[in-house]
Amino acid sequence: MTIKATSSNEPVGRLLDWLGLRNPHSGAPIREIPPPGGRATGDLAQQARHRLAQAIMSFLLDHDLDISASNLSLAHSVFSGTNPGLARRINARIASGEGISQSWLDELAKEEAAALDHSEIDRIVARLESNLDAFQTHTKAARSVTSDYGSELERHVLDLEHLEHLEQVQKTGQLVSNLADLAKVMLERTRRAEDDMRKSEDEAKALRRSLARARRDAEIDYLTGLPNRRAFEVLLERHHAEARGACEPLSVAFCDIDEFKRVNDIHGHEAGDRVIKLIADTLSKISDDHCHVARHGGEEFVMLFRGLPPSEAAKRLDEARQELAERRLINRKTDEPFGQITFSGGVADVFGYSEVREALKAADDALYRAKQAGRNRIELA
């Protein structure tokens, strides 16, 4: 396949130039990229960039995919290790023999875009909550000032009413009476304003509660009731910081339902959803305050084990796997047997790697090895 950078796709052309994948003289793509030589030979970072660039372009060209910004972004997230779940899905697709088509990759791009949209919604909600904080603070302060002013005004009204009855001011009684009437109107309006501000405070509190519910709903997987991928990332960040400060072990695991496509093909997607919920319930049984399970997407789950080294975490996960594997399940709607439903898993030590995402990728790689080794097993990274 020939790739040409024209004026219509100049951004892609510039990206190819940046990746070092276009011949500066002919504009043709360079299929194989030799390791950098000369003084750059010892530059590990540069070598890593070249390997990443070659992996990205080999993937796109080998599968006859468009050299588009979307494809390049997806391929980068796969081969740079920033999205191990996506890498595993692509590996599974290739292993199944179904191949990587542009239409299938476009669907993945939509899912990733949806995840980014959720992140943007989070930022908007955070800004709205911050504005609510400021509104409540200012409204409360204004209501306090209004209340104090109203109390002082009320005292003046009482003084004016008292003056009206004094003999020494009978000649100016009408003036005092008018002032008293005016002060009463001002007091009434002040109290009304204070009441309106109190209602605004109550409305702001109700909106905050609605936002909190919406945030919780956005972090829950609708099918299983488990935290979703986004919520898990927040949990992982918090427990990573706490465990590191407390010098506690921290392990992460990826789990994936074995032969799930076969379940959907034979029994239908509704039955497939019931199997997903069954796995969610199975993994939830071993979760507690220091063991968290979330649905990562599709038929994949992710778990975090606080205070457990990888070997202990793998043991707990394997016990759940064995318990499930011993069951023989029936599709209650059709009375047809599901047969044996199993899952595979990979476990990694979070602190065994320089970055959390490297530990996630290691757990995902261990899961892939478990699949390759026959499924229905747990592998350590």
Key traits:
381 residues, alpha+beta, Alpha-Beta Plaits, two-stranded antiparallel ribbon, 7 strands, 62% helix, disordered N terminus
Question: What is the strand tally?
Answer: 7
Let me know the average pLDDT.
Answer: 77
What would you give as the CATH superfamily of the largest domain? Answer: Reverse transcriptase/Diguanylate cyclase domain
Q: What is the alpha-carbon Rg in Å?
A: 32 Å
Per CATH, which architecture of the largest domain?
2-Layer Sandwich
Fraction of residues in β-strands? 5-15%
- Helicity, as a percent range: 55-70%
What is the overall shape? elongated
Structure description:
- This protein has a 5-stranded mixed beta sheet, sandwiched between helices. A two-stranded antiparallel ribbon has the order 4-5.
- The chain has 3 domains: 74 residues, no CATH class; 97 residues; 152 residues, Alpha-Beta Plaits, CATH 3.30.70.270.
- The N terminus is likely disordered.
- The protein has 381 residues and is of the alpha+beta class.
- Helix 5 packs antiparallel against helix 6 and helix 8 packs across helix 9.
- It is elongated, with a radius of gyration of 32 Å.
- It is built from 11 helices and 7 strands.
Summarize the structure.
With about 375 residues, this protein is of the alpha+beta class. It contains 11 helices and 7 strands.
